[in-house]
Write a structure and sequence with these properties.
The protein has 5 helices and no strands. By secondary structure, the protein is mainly α.
């Protein structure tokens, strides 16, 4: 009887171990995931109209596409600083994106957008302050 209980227990444990999901892919989120998260945060924080949200999505898609191209030229490495040329180009992209968003939103919404955008930025090693909360 003890052997049967032991065998059943081992079967239950082994099936529980096999039923677990494999770990998800580590790495940066894809375009769709970033757009989805951005949309969620903007809807919550900025509360844009449907038309404003669509225009913002288009702007962010353009921004993410260009940013991904820049990152290909600056592959991840140990924490040395980003190449100044890439950093300048990224800052220009951010500025262009924000100018485009500013034309879409009201002044109050744009203020909320700037706060939300800071929350969405990933924490970089070596920067002061704690990482942003999700």
């Amino acid at each position: 009887m003890k052997k049967q209980i032991l065998i059943v227990a081992m079967m239950v444990i082994s099936s529980a171990i096999q039923a677990q999901e494999p770990p998800k892919h580590k790495g940066p989120p894809g375009m769709e995931e970033r757009l989805k998260r951005t949309k969620e945060v903007m809807q919550k924080e900025v509360q844009p109209s449907v038309v404003q949200l669509q225009a913002m999505e288009s702007t962010f898609k353009t921004f993410f596409t260009a940013a991904d191209k820049l990152r290909k030229y600056n592959p991840p490495s140990p924490p040395p600083p980003t190449d100044p040329k890439v950093k300048a180009a990224m800052n220009k992209l951010v500025q262009e994106r924000d100018e485009s968003i500013k034309k879409i939103l009201t002044a109050d919404q744009f203020t909320k957008y700037k706060t939300a955008a800071k929350k969405m930025q990933p924490h970089r090693p070596g920067e002061d302050g704690p990482p942003p909360r999700n």
